[in-house]
Write a structure and sequence with these properties.
This protein is an alpha+beta fold. 28% of the residues lie in helices and 31% in strands. It has helices spanning 3-9, 11-15, 17-23, 48-60, 97-104, 110-122, 124-132, 140-152, 161-173, 234-240, and strands at 29-34, 42-44, 80-84, 88-94, 186-191, 196-199, 205-209, 212-217, 223-226, 249-250, 254-255, 260-263, 271-286, 292-305, 308-313, 317-320, 327-339. The strands form 4 sheets. Strands 11, 12, 13, 14, 15, 16 and 17 form a 7-stranded antiparallel β-sheet that branches. It has a 5-stranded antiparallel β-sheet with strand order 1-8-3-6-10, with no helix packed on it. Strands 5-4-7 form a 3-stranded antiparallel β-sheet, with helices on one face. Helix 5 runs antiparallel to helix 6, helix 6 (110-122) packs across helix 7 and helix 8 packs across helix 9.
């Protein structure tokens, strides 16, 4: 029995009245464990209004939901949060134009000089559009020349050694793709274990490496610009992307008890709690009462809810419905809990 079928059989009991009224008869979040073996695609997620309009347009065009050329597979937005289990590397949003110009200074290739002038005179959107659009993107030779310049730049003198390293790394995985140069325009992000990053709609991003827990609104709407073999729709991505300079949104945890920290994202679809347990004899009462997913990340814990207890070992998970009331935990280990605010 799939989780979807389990919820469908009793949506009011499993989701609870508040979730059912606010989000409809389906779980409003998706929970993933991600560990990219190579950098994931350069992508953007639409807002709810954009998703609704895009879905309706593709429905009217008769594009099947399972078509590889489909952009909008539902009417939902897809804000997301990633919680780092190991060191986690990402690219998120755009730098300020003057910082981009500083990063490119000294590379001394025709392409870097052109991008630098374009950013200062026309803005970041113009340079980003030039790089990713099939009609204007630079040739493989020009891309390779700029990648080589990044590789050869002295790290001690580089204005952004992380940008140089990211360009070289992406080029090793996607040679010839002009999108490998976007780290020169974007903010590099390095998360340490326990840190979290929030990605709002319209924010261009790419996850490069690491292991993390990813929680997001229940949607499969992804617009891709490059670094992938999947469907790419540059015009639609450019219509949705926010090109203003903005720092990455790190979410600091709020300590709600001696054992539990909660990462509150500015959305109504999900929240993520991290619980560290160190007593096998005392039950740790959790405050969430709606639909929850508990994943054991370390050690072994017991979960008590709905009048029964279940042991979770590392790598195992359990879904707790709203009709099972509060949950309590005990054991030695760490769990993450996905819930609806």
């Amino acid at each position: 029995l799939s989780l979807e079928d389990y919820i469908t059989a009793d949506p009011e009991g499993t989701l609870g009245e508040d979730t059912l009224v606010g989000h409809g008869p389906a779980l409003p979040y998706l929970l993933k464990l991600i560990a990219p073996m190579r950098p994931l695609s350069l992508q953007v997620h639409p807002s709810k209004a954009q998703a609704q309009a895009g879905f309706d347009t593709e429905e009217e065009a008769g594009i099947p939901l399972d078509s590889p050329d489909r952009n909008y597979r539902d009417r939902n937005a897809k804000p997301e949060l990633v919680y780092a289990i190991t060191s986690f590397e990402a690219l998120v949003g755009f730098r300020a134009p003057r910082r981009i110009a500083e990063v490119m200074r000294g590379l001394r290739t025709p392409l870097s000089d052109r991008l630098r002038r374009m950013v200062l005179r026309e803005g970041v959107r113009a340079a980003f559009t030039y790089l990713i659009s099939p009609e204007t993107c630079p040739s493989g030779d020009r891309v390779a020349s700029l990648v080589e310049a990044c590789a050869e730049r002295d790290p001690e003198k580089s204005p952004s050694r992380r940008a140089d390293a990211a360009v070289v790394s992406l080029a090793a995985h996607y040679p010839g793709d002009a999108s490998v140069l976007t780290p020169l325009l974007m903010n590099p992000v390095s998360l340490r274990p326990g840190e979290a990053l929030y990605i709002p709609d319209g924010t261009v991003h790419a996850y490069r490496s690491g292991v993390g827990v990813e929680i997001m609104a229940s949607s499969d709407n992804v617009l891709r610009a490059g670094l992938t073999e999947k469907h790419i729709d540059v015009p639609e991505l450019l219509r949705v992307v926010r090109a203003d300079a903005a720092p990455p949104m790190r979410i600091a945890p709020e300590r709600v008890s001696a054992s539990t920290s909660v990462y509150y994202a500015p959305v109504e679809d999900f929240e993520l709690s991290v619980v560290q347990l160190s007593d096998a004899n005392a039950w740790d009462r959790q405050r969430s009462e709606g639909p929850r997913t508990v994943v054991c990340m370390e050690g072994a814990v017991q979960v008590y809810a709905g009048g029964g207890a279940l042991q979770l070992n590392k790598g195992q998970a359990v879904f707790i419905g709203a009709n099972e009331g509060e949950a309590s935990l005990r054991g030695f280990g760490k769990v993450v809990i996905a819930a609806v605010p």
